[in-house]
């Protein structure tokens, strides 16, 4: 979770540069609060804003693009002074992002990708993180042996890391993925991953030299 901590620190630093004002109102939209990372990022932004004495409107799009667009429109109509979007959809909600810029409302995104209508996106390089994690695990295994993987393809960051792992495996034939678990739930993801990986470990008992997960990697 180090990358998320860096994102939140960068966000706090960004908020700190804006002068405190009693009448300042910021709208914060998290795309899916059922995802722990979305909720943590949005709540951290709200906490930092409240610490400056700002008014905060905190919204959860519940993973629905129509609701995401509606909430954006509502914040524009409310004439908030700024908008922060956690894990939003700048491409799919292009019209709303453009409308905010036209209205003179600055928009900052977190882990969303940038847009012509935003100030900037607070982002980590998931391609580098994926490569570093995969190569670190390969090194611990001396580039040979069998691994199990825990993946989550519904999230951009973890999906990228998985793709990088696949590239690394394609070039290191002595390391083989003998079992794969794909996480399906986000709200209770710890239990989901724990149960899935326990089943894989029992099935492949005595055969595994390493475990790779979308959030971490370690040798057995």
Protein architecture, described:
The protein has 220 residues and is of the alpha/beta class. The chain contains 7 helices and 9 strands. Strands 2-1-3-4-5 form a 5-stranded parallel beta sheet, with helices on both faces. The model has no long low-confidence stretch (mean pLDDT 86).
List keywords for this structure.
4-stranded mixed beta sheet; 7 helices; 220 residues; single chain; 9 strands; 5-stranded parallel beta sheet; alpha/beta
Structural class: alpha/beta
**Which sheet architecture does the biggest sheet show?**
5 strands, parallel
> How many beta-strand runs?
9
Overall pLDDT level: 86
The number of helical elements comes to 7
Poorly predicted regions are none
> What sort of overall outline do the alpha carbons produce when their principal axes are compared?
elongated
End-to-end Cα distance:
20 Å
Helix/strand order, N-terminal first: HEHEHEHEEHEHEHEE
Secondary-structure blueprint:
Layout: H1 2-16, E1 25-30, H2 36-51, E2 55-60, H3 65-78, E3 82-86, H4 94-102, E4 107-110, E5 120-122, H5 126-140, E6 145-151, H6 156-170, E7 175-182, H7 189-203, E8 210-213, E9 217-219
Parallel strand pairs: 1-2, 1-3, 3-4, 4-5, 6-7, 6-8
Antiparallel strand pairs: 8-9
């Amino acid at each position: 979770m180090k990358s998320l901590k860096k994102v939140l620190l960068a966000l706090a630093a960004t908020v700190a540069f804006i002068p405190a004002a009693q009448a300042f109102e910021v709208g914060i939209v998290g795309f899916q609060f059922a995802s722990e990372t979305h909720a943590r990022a949005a709540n951290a932004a709200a906490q930092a804003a409240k610490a400056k004495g700002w008014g905060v409107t905190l919204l959860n799009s519940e993973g629905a693009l129509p609701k995401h667009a509606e909430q954006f429109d509502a914040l524009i109509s409310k004439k908030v002074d700024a908008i922060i979007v956690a894990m939003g959809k700048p491409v799919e909600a292009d019209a709303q992002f453009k409308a905010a810029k036209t209205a003179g409302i600055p928009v900052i995104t977190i882990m969303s990708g940038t847009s012509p209508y935003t100030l900037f996106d607070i982002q980590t390089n998931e391609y580098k993180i994926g490569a570093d994690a995969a190569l670190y695990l390969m090194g611990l295994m001396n580039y040979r042996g069998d691994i199990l993987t825990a993946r989550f393809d519904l999230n951009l960051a973890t999906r990228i890391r998985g793709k990088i792992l696949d590239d690394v495996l394609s070039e290191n034939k002595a390391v083989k993925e003998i079992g794969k678990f794909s996480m399906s739930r986000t709200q209770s993801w710890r239990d989901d991953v724990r149960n899935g990986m326990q089943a894989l470990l029992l099935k492949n008992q005595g055969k595994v030299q390493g475990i790779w997960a979308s959030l971490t990697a370690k040798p057995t």
